[in-house]
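[Discussion] Sanity-checking designs against the backbone

I'm trying to build intuition for which residues belong where. Below is a structure token string of 324 positions. I'd appreciate it if someone posts a full sequence so I can compare it with mine line by line.
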């Protein structure tokens, strides 16, 4: 018996040395040698690593500014994910590995579970796996997520925008996780505007934006009331700067798109492109000299002839007399 206990102890020691999450348990390099039991609603802020066991997640999980969020072996880092889209339960619940990089790193698992939550699993002896009942979502009637305009041409050095438009069919949009890709050697995100370069559209909302990776923009949003439905919902505007000549595709990957009841909205995606041309050169204005103006010709008034005469023309005087 002692030999079996010793062997089990060695196995547990080896498992504890693994640096990443494994199905059926949760381990990390440091700071989370034991599993913490928790229930929803669960929130955690700050840096460092932790392993959490949640017996159920009723509505959704969301995170931002995290280095890693892994649930039962599936990466959900900095994304809003509906409970219906999470991987299958392991040991009757969800092992959550958290690694926060900053004091403002955040993770939350929200929503009450139906019925009574199972008893939290002890860290050293997980309960028998209980698979959750199969959830049948109602049929969805979504349409598309697209970039508008589909193509455009700008000059190097110019700022420009693209809009993310959604046709949600007959469903409202309550939450989304959308990744936007682009050619970072041609364009870059103008993070000085909005939330890391992203602004909410006329019918949209923005909760978190991760712009740390060049060439990739991860966006997420959550609104309990939802927006829409509609065939042309302006979800968000992305601000870019054209850096170098060339062409960049602007791609879309929809990680999650759900309505206010956490039902998935089925959509297709349509990306866009931008062509960057030469910088605009502004020539100085042409200087037009005014026409030379000669001074006006001076015209002397016409002359009229006259005469100088002796009056009287003739006269007779006596000798010795004075006359004029």
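Best answer:
Here's mine. Compare freely.
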């Amino acid at each position: 018996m002692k030999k079996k206990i010793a062997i089990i102890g060695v196995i547990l020691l080896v498992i504890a040395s693994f640096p990443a999450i494994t199905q059926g348990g949760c381990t990390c390099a440091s700071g989370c040698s034991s599993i913490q039991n928790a229930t929803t609603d669960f929130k955690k802020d700050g840096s460092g690593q932790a392993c959490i066991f949640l017996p159920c997640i009723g509505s959704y999980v969301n995170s931002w500014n995290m280095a890693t969020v892994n649930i039962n072996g599936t990466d959900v880092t900095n994304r809003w994910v509906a409970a219906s889209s999470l991987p299958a339960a392991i040991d009757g619940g969800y092992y959550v590995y958290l690694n926060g990089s900053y004091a403002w790193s955040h993770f939350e698992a929200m929503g009450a579970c139906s019925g009574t939550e199972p008893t939290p699993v002890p860290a050293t002896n997980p309960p028998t796996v209980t698979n959750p009942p199969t959830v049948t979502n109602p049929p969805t009637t979504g349409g598309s997520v697209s970039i508008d305009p589909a193509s455009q041409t700008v000059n190097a050095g110019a700022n420009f925008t693209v809009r993310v438009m959604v046709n949600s069919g007959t469903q409202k949009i309550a939450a989304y996780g959308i990744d936007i890709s682009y050619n970072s050697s041609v364009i870059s995100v103008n993070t000085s505007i909005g939330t890391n370069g992203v602004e909410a559209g006329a019918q949209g909302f923005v909760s978190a934006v991760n712009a740390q990776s060049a060439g990739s923009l991860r966006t997420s949003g959550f609104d309990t009331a939802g927006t829409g439905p509609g065939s042309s919902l302006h979800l968000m505007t992305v601000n870019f700067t054209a850096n170098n000549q060339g062409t960049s595709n602007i791609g879309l990957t929809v990680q999650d798109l759900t309505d206010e009841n956490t039902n998935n909205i089925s959509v297709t995606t349509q990306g866009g492109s931008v062509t960057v041309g030469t910088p605009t050169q502004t020539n100085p204005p042409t200087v037009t000299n005014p026409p030379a103006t000669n001074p006006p010709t001076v015209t002397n008034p016409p002359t009229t002839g006259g005469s100088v005469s002796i009056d009287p023309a003739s006269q007779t005087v006596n000798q010795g007399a004075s006359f004029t």
